[in-house]
Design goal:
0% strand; binds tryptophan
């Protein structure tokens, strides 16, 4: 198999922006603020940072090292270091997770698209009218999928890198503008206080689970997205500092998103603990009611759509890279094929918001929707599981000596203490912590089923 024509990043900045684009998505701007608001404010922020530092960063380095070493997709990369062993199924799990996450994530991404127009042109009606409208939902889903295809079609440099370079710098600009506006609203400080008030009593086993899950999802870890992006890196690239920039940028955007949302929520006397509904139900009402809300609201949904697009790109790229490397398919064919399969998989998710009674409330799962089920299996369980397996694979099978040597190419200083600390985290801390957390998770699952 040749790696010819796979593509490489054109520049270091291009890689950092593409990887940061993959990381920063709905998970940061939509999910992080509301789970922080519900789970102890500043206490949760600290817990999240701890999870990212101790588990997220080590796994990110594992994925990048593996990808750059092999210069292949997750399945190919694992095969390259373990031969034709059962380990390759970890790669297949990643490819499958890419398709499955993309299939429901794009539904929400489609809403961001819809809300840009809804806010800009002042189309009324509550959120339920958008999501319950099957045809509109399906069209938005398809439109977002086509946008994603359009970028991935262009390849690593001509598509992903080019668009990341255009879109990513816009993101913090819009966010900061919204924050400045939001903070000047009367009663805004109330929101800041709610967001940041540290409530350590809110930290429970469940909260730790949320923080760890968020560390994986928000940093695009556990399914080989970073193996794939790492595989387009050249050997002299410093993956240590590039990786840390990606994580740091993500934490910053997550943290800032709360300052855009909560002050506005409090200024308009809305419920901050509205959960997942916060962004799509409460915020549009707020924008509709506040002065300048039309412009700010439109800007907010443009922000969300950009963040979502650079993430859907990376989700699509994993299975596409797999087909290119392993099946010798041409990129354009692979892109259309994966997109087609994803659309089929996405139909039940599109129907999960009232479109179909069955998918909206699955009878055998106590009324959980198909969408929630997908998010639970692939967003919450598969990523930490994949991350744990990646850590064991690299820490115990490939070996830390080889992994540290890979990391040290481009950053010789990694050879000493940093490499030793990383090795300890990868071999012991990551597998043990993730295992315990997953036991807890399945315990909860059992209780739910009783
Ligand atoms: N990180 C993205 C977010 O926060 C979602 C995402 C994109 C993702 N690619 C991924 C999650 C790969 C896990 C794996 O919204």
């Amino acid at each position: 198999m040749t790696t010819e024509g796979r593509g490489t990043w054109g520049s270091r900045l291009g890689f950092v922006l593409a990887a940061a684009g993959s990381a920063v998505g709905l998970g940061h701007i939509w999910r992080f603020p509301y789970i922080t608001g519900e789970n102890g404010g500043a206490a949760f922020v600290l817990l999240y940072i701890l999870c990212v530092a101790l588990i997220g960063v080590p796994i990110l380095f594992v994925e990048l090292a593996l990808g750059r070493h092999a210069q292949l997709n997750p399945v190919g990369a694992i095969r390259k270091i373990t031969g034709n062993s059962a380990w390759k199924y970890v790669g297949y799990l990643g490819v499958a997770a890419g398709v499955c996450i993309l299939s429901y994530y794009t539904v929400v991404a489609g809403w961001t698209f819809g809300y840009i127009f809804k806010t800009a042109f002042g189309w009324g009606g509550p959120h339920g009218q958008l999501t319950g409208n099957v045809l509109l939902n399906a069209l938005l889903f398809l439109a977002f999928m086509l946008l994603t295809v359009g970028v991935v079609y262009g390849g690593v440099q001509g598509g992903i890198e080019k668009w990341s370079k255009i879109l990513m710098p816009i993101l913090p600009l819009i966010l900061v503008a919204i924050i400045l506006y939001s903070l000047t609203l009367p009663g805004a400080m109330e929101g800041v206080r709610f967001y940041l008030r540290p409530d350590f009593s809110a930290i429970t086993g469940q909260t730790v689970l949320m923080a760890l899950g968020q560390a994986f999802f928000a940093n695009s870890l556990g399914m080989g997205a970073m193996v794939t992006y790492g595989s387009y890196l050249s050997k002299n690239e410093n993956i240590v500092t590039s990786g840390l920039s990606v994580v740091g940028f993500g934490i910053l955007i997550s943290f800032l998103a709360g300052f855009a949302i909560f002050p506005a929520v409090f200024a308009m006397g809305q419920d901050p603990a509205a959960g997942p509904q916060l962004v799509f139900v409460i915020l549009p009402e707020i924008f509709a009611a506040m002065p300048g809300g039309l412009v700010v609201g439109t800007a907010f949904f443009v922000l969300l759509a950009i963040a979502a697009l650079t993430s859907t790109i990376s989700l699509l790229e994993v299975p596409v890279a797999f087909l290119i490397d392993e099946k010798g398919m041409r990129r354009k064919v692979a892109t259309w094929l994966v997109a087609g399969v994803t659309v089929l998989f996405g139909i039940p998710s599109v129907l999960s918001f009232g479109g179909s009674a069955f998918f909206t409330s699955l009878p055998f799962l106590g009324g959980m929707s198909f969408f929630d089920l997908m998010d639970f299996i692939f967003g919450a369980v598969a990523l930490p599981l994949g991350g744990m397996l990646f850590a064991i694979l690299v820490g115990w099978r490939w070996g830390m000596a080889r992994a540290v040597a890979e990391m040290a190419q481009g950053n010789p200083a990694f050879m000493g203490l940093p490499g030793a600390v990383w090795g300890f985290l990868v071999r012991y801390v990551c597998p043990a912590v993730i295992f315990v957390v997953m036991l807890h998770q399945t315990g909860i699952l059992r209780k739910l089923m009783e």
